[in-house]
Every structure is written in structure tokens, then in C-alpha cells.
Amino acid sequence: MTLVSFVGLRVRAEELLALGLRLPGLEKRRKAVAELPALGLLTLAGLMPSDWSCSYYEVDKWEQSLVDQIAEQQPCLVAVSALTASVNEAYGFCGALRRRGIPTVIGGLHATACPSEAALHSDAVVVGDGEPVWTQVLHDAQFGRALGIYRSDRPFDLNKSITPRFDLAAVRPRSRFTVQTQRGCPFSCEFCAASRLLGGFREKPAHLVEKELATLSAIVPRPVVELADDNTFAGTRDQSALLEVLAAAKIPYFTETDWRIGERLDLLRELAASGCVQVLVGIESLVHIYRGFGKKQADLARIMAALDTVQDHGIAVIGCFVLGADGETTASIAGLTQFLLDCQLADVQVTLQTPFPGSPLRERLAKAGRLLVDRPWDHYTLFDVTFRPDSMTVTELERGYRELAAVVYSAVENKRRSKIRRTVWARSPITSKALASTHGEAT
């Protein structure tokens, strides 16, 4: 069995590539994302029978030498994982393997949203959660019958979660590993497909998270963990039990959540003490309120005050912003640029609105005829415009994003935010040595 993940944060536009080379903040984030292992594939590897051998690869682009190397191993199946921006690359790879007589199966969010498309390029497609159907996929592959679309009749019960094969990802040095404590999201933001494609929101029991962290720590000395959650503290489970497990593991970690944790002082104290050094928070657009925000919806002043409180507890905040939502203009881009220059967030991430398959946003823009049909999946990078804005031209949005990025990710701004991070982390109960190990600088 061979597992291949197409990884990395892709930057397609030549101007942005050149810009990224000059802007260490963008380049640092791209490298950090590229180091994250494919947790889905590692999880499926943990479900494989003991008499199956397994190899694991992470690639940005495939080369014929990789196909030749895999062909020499003579696997009965190659499992491929890819996001939307890299799915055409994955399709080409599957085609090269199939021409060598090697069957393939592809899964992930894009394949789940577009199974018929994926089935044109791969022998088999896994739709949604892979765990419920994986035993059948392996059985069919063993007898040369791994064909068609595999779809579970219900979401996977996280109470039955097994420990991923972290050892496969630990064969090369990396700055961080991923651990998942939940799947899906209780909110249904219009731009998000993950909250819909994998079934309902579920939380993993704390004792299973504890087992995964112990396994990882036994394999990797002093690991750093990124929780592969969409909104770690948005559910109803006993957060104290999870935080006690994280604290006992003595592993610095960071995660995604929403601004409301800044109004929960009891949670913040436990969060800081548990080893959390950074949170990524979606502030989204300053000109548009997406449907599905629910209780996350609030005025900007309240959100920023809450995030100040988070940083007062020694937890750095990466604020995430989306450019190009309905109502965006050249004036509003200038306003966002100034806001980012003035704000005291430890870091910021600005991407372009992207109508990913499976999201209501894509459905709405498609019905309005606003999708750019001449821009295929490799444009869905978060840095390329793939739709027609409602209040400006495509060219104006592209130029506005480049100009914002040149200012916000300049050396001067990166230095300023780095100073803010150090100030925030000086308040943390975690040791400075542990904090230093999280940063590539944890962006």
C-alpha cells in the first residue's frame, strides 16, 4: 500500500510568487503549511491490517521518478489525497500510475464535493469520512476490485477513533504535527465546505486525544502540535477535560477557534496553562457578513477587544481576513490595509474569497453567473481571483490584493508583528524555550 499526499500552500500568480520571495511572512507560512502531514492518510494507515506494508510520500508536484519508485514496490493500491488547488496535479499522477497498471483511490474534501469528476481520473473515490469504508476498499484492492465510489451511510463515530500512524510522517524532520480533536463545525458559514461535506459536527473523547499525544511524544522528542480542528472550543464537551490532557502532555500547540474565547476568562486561563501558544481566528470580511455565522456574529470593536484579552493571557492571535466579499471596493481594501497596519494582532493572514466546491458560496456565485469558468482548479489557491466581484472588476481586485500584500507583509510590518508576538509570549506560563520551538515562528 502506498499513500501520497499533495501538500503545500500554492501561490500560482507570477507576481505573487515574486512578491512572496520578498515577503518573509508569506514565504514562512507557505513552508509551514507544506510541513503539515496528511492526517487523513495517516489515520487510514492506522486502520490497515498488520500484514500490509505501507509507504508514505508528501509531494508538491509529481515526477516520473516517483511513479517509477512506486511501480518498483508493486503496491496493490495507491491512496491519494489532494485539496482543490492541487487536485489536477493529483489527477495527472493517478493517470500516470494507472498507465503502469497500478490502481488508485482518491479522497479528501475536493473528491467528496466532486466524486463524479474524481472518478474520471481514479479507479476508486472515497466520499466523506474514510474510516467506515476503508476495510472494504482494502478488501476490494486485494482482489483487484477497488472500483467506483465508496460512501458511508453515516458519519464516522469519533468514539471509535484509532491513533494515526505518526511514525510514517516522522521519518523526516518537521516543525509540527497535526492532531484532530473534532470533525466538522457547529456553524455553517457560507464560504465553508468542511462543515457540510463530512457530516455533522463531532468531538473526540479526551482520553483518545491523550492516547494520540502519548504516541506522538514517544516517536518525536518535544513535538509541536497543530490541532486540525475547524473551531476547537465551539462545541459542548467538557473543555476542561481536553485541556487537562493537553497540559499533561506538555506539548506546545496552536489551534483554530473563534473570538468568543476572549470573553471566557476561565477558559483562557486553562488554555494558556495547557500549552496553547497561538490561535488562528477568522475575523473574515470587514464589508460583508456571511450567512451562517450564528453566535460568532458581532461588531468589530467587540471582536478586537476579545482578541486583546486572548493576547493578554499570553496566547498569540493570527487574525484571518478575506478580501473580495460582496461590497468590497478599492476604498474598502485601503481601509483594511490601514486597519492591519494599526492593529495589535500578533500576526495576520489575508486571502482572497474563494468559492470552493461544496460551499453555498460557490452555489450562489454559480447561479449568478459570477464564477470565472476559464480559471480551473489550480487557481483555487486562496491567492487567485476565481469569481467576478460585485462592486469592482477582477483586475481591480487582483491589483488591490497585491498592493495590500506588499504593505502588510513588508519587512517593516513583519518586524513589528514579531515584536508583538514576543510581548504576548512574555506573558505566557509556557517556557521561552518551548515558545521558541513553536515558531517558524508559529505562523
Structural summary, described in words:
This protein has 443 residues and is of the alpha/beta class. It has two domains: 2-24 and 35-151, Cobalamin-binding domain (Rossmann fold), CATH 3.40.50.280; 175-438, pyruvate-formate lyase- activating enzyme. Helices cover 42% and strands 14% of the residues. A six-stranded parallel beta sheet has the order 2-1-3-4-5-6, sandwiched between helices. A six-stranded parallel beta sheet has the order 7-10-11-12-13-14. It starts with a strand and ends in a 5-residue tail after the last helix. The model has no long low-confidence stretch (mean pLDDT 91).
* Strand arrangement, major sheet: 2-1-3-4-5-6
Q: Architecture of the largest domain, CATH level 2? A: Alpha-Beta Horseshoe
Oligomer: single chain
Task: Give the helix tally.
Answer: 19
Total strand count, please?
A: 14
Instruction: Provide mean pLDDT, rounded.
Output: 91
Calculate the terminal CA-CA distance, rounded to whole Å. 34 Å
Query: What is the CATH topology assignment of the largest domain?
Result: pyruvate-formate lyase- activating enzyme
* Helix and strand composition category: alpha/beta
Low-pLDDT stretches are: none
Q: Over all CA atoms, what is the radius of gyration? A: 21 Å
Strand content: 5-15%
**Helix fraction by DSSP (H/I, runs of at least 4):** 40-55%
Number of spatially distinct domains: 2
General form: globular
CATH superfamily of the largest domain: tm_1862 like domain
CATH class descriptor name of the largest domain = Alpha Beta
Q: What's the story with the biggest beta sheet?
A: 6 strands, parallel
